[in-house]
Write a structure and sequence with these properties.
CATH topology: Nucleotidyltransferase, domain 5
Mean pLDDT: 86
Number of domains: 1
Oligomer: single chain
CATH architecture: 2-Layer Sandwich
Order of helices and strands: HHEHEH
CATH superfamily: ATPase, nucleotide binding domain
Radius of gyration: 18 Å
Structural class: mainly alpha
Helix content: 40-55%
Strand order of the largest sheet: 1-2
Largest sheet: 2 strands, parallel
């Protein structure tokens, strides 16, 4: 459920000076959060999961939390938000994903490792190498 907001940003940039800045900001936020809710709901139905936990910097936003919580209540799904002290930096989440990979696959030489900024945790194969 990949999402990108570059189109929204581009459209809003074209409206600067034609609309009030606070209206553009509000519309951009509402649209982005609605898209996140829609993608999350789709992911829940496809995976048949019974709960979500939001984390990361944007997870501190009370409006997003409210929207996701309402969506979860409508769908009978549990909702949770990580405490804000863990929502400031994605580095902790990246480190944890690396730790899980290390536990599953063991150590690798740096020459065997390739950076992939589009890496998805669901790409992990089930084999143990």
């Amino acid at each position: 459920m990949n999402v990108t907001f570059s189109g929204i940003l581009t459209h809003c940039e074209k409206l600067i000076g034609k609309e009030k800045n606070e209206d553009l900001a509000y519309s951009m936020l509402e649209t982005a959060f609605a898209e996140l809710c829609e993608a999350t709901e789709r992911a829940l139905f496809l995976t048949k999961r019974k709960g979500i936990i939001v984390c990361g910097g944007v997870a501190q936003n009370k409006k997003l939390q409210k929207m996701l919580k309402e969506m979860c209540e409508e769908d009978g799904v549990e909702f949770g938000a990580a405490p804000n002290e863990y929502n400031r930096d994605n580095g902790a989440m990246i480190a944890y994903a690396g730790y899980l990979q290390y536990k599953k696959f063991g150590e690798h030489k740096i020459s065997e490792v390739e950076a992939d900024q589009d890496y998805r945790i669901d790409k992990i194969k089930n084999d143990s190498r």
